[in-house]
Specification:
about 700 residues, binds iron/sulfur cluster, Rossmann fold, single chain, Dimethylsulfoxide Reductase, domain 2, Phosphorylase Kinase, domain 1, 6-stranded mixed β-sheet, alpha/beta, 22 helices, about 20% strand
Amino acid sequence: MKKFYTIKGACPQDCPDTCAMIYKVEDGKIAKVIGDPDNNLTKGRLCAKLNNFAEHHYNPERLLYPMKRVGKKGSNDFARISWDEALSEIKKNWQSIIKEYGAEAILPHAYLGNLGSLNGLTSGDRFFNALKTTVAEKTYCESGSSTAWMLTYGPIGGLDPESFAYSKCLVFWGHNPLSTQTHCWPFVLEARKKGAKIIVIDPVRTRTAKQADIHLAPKPGTDAALALSMINVIIEEGLYDAEYVGKYCSGFIELRKRAAQFTPEKASKICGISAENIILVAREFAKSKASAIRLGVALERHAGGGQAIRAITCLPALVGAWKYPGGGAVQMTLWSYPLKWDKMSRGEWIKPGTRVVNLLDLGAALTGEKYNTDITPIKSLFVYNSNPLCMAPNQNKVRMGLERDDLFTVVSEHFMTETARYADIVLPASMQGEQLDIMFSWGHFNILLNQKAVEPAGECVSNTELFRRLSKTMGMTRPHLFMTDWELIDEYVDWDSDTMRGIDLEVLKEKGWARLWVGGSPDIRAPYSKGNFPTPSGKCEFVATGAAEGNHVKPALRSGYTYFQQGSAIDPIPCYIPPYESVDSTPELAKKYPLAMVSGKAHAFLNSQYANEKLQKERQGEQIIIIHPNDANKRNLNSGEDVKIFNDRGSFSSIVEISEDIRPGVIYANVGYWDSMIKSQTGVNNVTDDRHTDMGESGAYSDILVQVEKM
Ligand code: SF4
């Protein structure tokens, strides 16, 4: 007689939807995973990436046991060992490294391979902080846009997707929800039925742009000029809300002066969009009143990405959109969650002056280019929840670092990723159905409990258990390193917070999810109709307090030591910073490499996850780049041919797709393909650079020039 039961869970992926799921368990194995039909957003539907999530747990290629490298680094030659052997090997190597170089010679590397509060981004922080290793600053994504958002509005979550249904004008700026936030789309369609206009601003005609009423395709990295010009039009035509601005915004005169420099004609030249279209969009946004902007993280991936987001975020306040249900903006709803980030990472355990390495500089740190590695070299790398060889910029440098024979690398993973192939020790990690977690979202206001549905496969362990084992192995004694998962949940959430009214563990165990009381009640859709922004002035800050002196905060939950840390001096008024590399800003470089390349998430992969799954590979197809017919003709290219994309940093190969879905002078590439899937055996990040942008130490992934030629 077979035993069946169901249990509530939540999707672990780095995706704004954080879907409520139900595990269907049959004889101790997950037989099926479905979207929770009773959830306000998921409504029974998961996306293409997750709808074979049960099979993902039982993929025959999954790593089930600890392994030790027996061949050359990168060769995928490993032998099975026991957990005891793996832990004692780690202990032996780390003790010897610490004795000779100090604990700062160990660098942890983690990112959002799991979004959980327990098993996600910060799960190893308290262990590594207690061990006194180098601190990893994790700014692969969102840190620039978060810094900019905080400067304008402070830590508010903004609009939830359900509020989109009330919008009269919805702007998706550098965001493609039909591929990356599908569960908001029904609310967009509801708004459209009631007459709302949909505007997409993106250099690529994405799936979402194809559904839009208006699509503007600016040159990459010029969004600040476009936003400032829209501000200029709105002010000059008297379309701003003088009362809202007067009462609830600061710095209007300065903003007006700055925006006056960006006439539609001038912005048209910078952005490559007609002045008429800039005026059209500015008027539509201002006159619709209940206008909303959904910001994508792609915007921050340019030299001036932070300032672009500063300019864009001023728009809803300028027109008084926050007064209306469905009006305002959203960057990350995460800021409304009552999570105790400081408790998660135990930043107080870090010794002042400890070395901090930004993970975008991984290649530079491993190869000794940066971070005083001549004094304290990085001798060990511990990777979990991430696949840096695929996702870190400047891939050649990262590979050179990983190839070092004197680097002791440990990787905890689900599958033998490109990075794991370079490990000395590989540890098997459990998957979401096999572990407990409490989940937040960066796209809505639900808090969710992911309950353990089955025992982990093989000898896999959760990250919480992994770091408990490592703590014991290294002889640590702090009680906080040994808390159980339920104790961690109790500690990480501020259960007494006003937003948690009526929500406790019993509710979450029963229902699986609950919507936070953001803005006082789930039904209040205009909580900032009277300002009340948690900035230093209490207003929407067109001129950011303290920014000129660097005396502002940047959200540094990713740095592992404090929630907020001080930023560097920046222009307090939104401004336009030209791209690091472009035909206009670096004409000499553009003679060699005339095409700007932007990259984005694939439809069937999530960063590099699922790229090894047969079904997802079939859905996604091979690595392609999209190029405009004019640029293809100049290079005598035909759709379907193999091409080489290159610059001074490196190259990768791809199939070319010729389409007017991209503006001339720009190519688009999906990220996430593993090198082994690409003919050149190198990926998109072989040509990207590790430069940081203007705010939040975010990465300038889409601020690069390349050339394309037939292979
Ligand atoms: S990846 Fe995103 S859309 Fe897909 S199931 Fe997970 S949370 Fe939902």
